[in-house]
Each structure stands twice: as C-alpha cells, then as structure tokens.
Write a sequence for this structure.
C-alpha cells in the first residue's frame, strides 16, 4: 500500500519538516555547498550563522529552490523538492520566505501586498483575502498601516509587512534570510520581537542571522557554516558556552568581541 498522496506527498504527519541529503551546490566552478546533510524537525527553530560567503543564505534558498542544487536530495514536508517542477510549485505554496530587502511591491498598498498571493496563487476571493491580510497585519502589530504604501513606512515596518504577507499563505515553514541586516539598529528589535512571537506559536523556522541574542533566546539548534560546510550544530547553551570547533570559536570571538 502506497504511503504517498496523489500530489506526491508522503504521509508526513511524523516526518521531518526538511531533510537535506548529500546536497552539493555550485556556481560555475565555485563549490557553494559541500555535502550538506541536515534534518529539521516540525516546529523546530534553526538559526544558521557564519562568516560572509559561508553558504548560509544559499542553504536556506535551496529549501524552496530559489537556488537549484546539482547533487543530493531535498524533501520538504514529505515532498521531494528535487524530483521535478511540479513538486517545486507545491513546496513553494507551503514555505514562506522573508528576505533582507523586504521585496514589497512599491506601487501597491500594504494591504494589497498581503492580499495579492492569496488571490493569485490560492484563488481566494477578494473579501476573504482582505480579511486574512488585515488579521495578519494585526498579528505583526501594524494594522493601522494597511492603506499606506511601502515607501511611507520605516524599514522595520516594511519587514513586518513582509512577514505578514508570508504568513497570509498559511506556511508550514518560514525561511528568514538575514531579515534585520538592512535595518537601522533601533528597528531591529521590533522585527526580532515579531519573529520571537512567531517562534512561540510553534512555527518551523530556519533563520540566517548575525543576531546572536535572538539565537540564544529562540533557537532549538544553531548551525555554524564556513566555506560551504556545516561545521557545527548544537543547542544554544552548548554552542555559545562550549563550541567544539576552532572555526566556531574564532567566529564567535569576532562577533561577540571576546
């Protein structure tokens, strides 16, 4: 008896949210990801850190195939992403992504930015899409900004709109690619607080960030990457208190000043 649905989704109730096996990624001759093996459990919060160019953003961008891989296997919510275009489309419907540069449509109001994918991708009627969008703008604490355009908002507010837009699609997994690195320091906290609330609600999250305070507070596991490799994976207490690898210790020393 088959354990897959007609859409090609395995019976995923007890399966990991993300599985990466033997993943290799090249840009031309540059080896960006080297034999990545990683399993992310449902509801787990993973923080990925490492020096610039270490492959961390590439890693999470492979989870919804914004970056295609040359070798290996990636399974997301029971669907093998690396098995074909139809599966990629299915996975992207269930994986939310928040980018460094917000990626909002400047000619649309905040409300329309949040409604668009609901209507175009999910086929939801306008009234229902608007109600959903307003609910998630409330959730990220900016309901009063609904009729404004992105340029009228602060960077922190724009990033919270981007988070609300992703949440409108009811994702099973949220990917964050350095979501605070383009923000002024005083705006970082409001975005991190939104992400902390999301983590408390049980969302599966993979977050690329240099915000180590966030990692200590939220992460179930912290991944340190360098030169395209996963060098170390540990819980935050062990990762920050007793890192095993010299490269991890050097990196932590550089970003914490110790």
């Amino acid at each position: 008896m088959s354990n897959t649905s007609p859409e090609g989704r395995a019976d995923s109730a007890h399966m990991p949210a993300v599985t990466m096996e033997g993943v290799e990624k090249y840009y031309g001759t540059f080896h960006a990801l080297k034999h990545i093996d990683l399993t992310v459990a449902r509801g787990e919060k993973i923080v990925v850190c490492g020096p610039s160019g270490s492959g961390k953003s590439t890693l999470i961008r492979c989870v919804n195939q914004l970056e295609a891989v040359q070798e290996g296997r990636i399974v997301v919510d029971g669907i093998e992403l690396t098995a074909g275009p139809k599966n990629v489309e299915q996975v992207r419907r269930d994986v939310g992504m928040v980018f460094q540069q917000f990626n909002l449509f400047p000619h649309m109001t905040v409300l329309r930015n949040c409604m668009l994918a609901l209507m175009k991708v999910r086929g939801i009627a306008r009234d229902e899409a608007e109600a959903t969008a307003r609910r998630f703008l409330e959730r990220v604490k900016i309901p009063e900004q609904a009729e404004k355009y992105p340029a009228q908002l602060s960077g922190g507010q724009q990033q919270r709109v981007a988070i609300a837009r992703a949440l409108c699609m009811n994702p099973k997994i949220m990917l964050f690619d350095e979501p605070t690195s383009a923000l002024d320091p005083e705006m970082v906290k409001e975005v991190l607080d939104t992400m902390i609330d999301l983590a408390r609600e049980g969302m599966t999250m993979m977050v690329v960030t240099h915000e180590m305070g966030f990692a200590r507070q939220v992460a179930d596991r912290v991944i340190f990457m360098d030169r395209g490799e996963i060098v170390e994976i540990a819980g935050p207490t062990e990762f920050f208190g007793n890192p095993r690898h010299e490269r991890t210790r050097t990196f932590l020393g550089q970003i914490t000043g110790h």
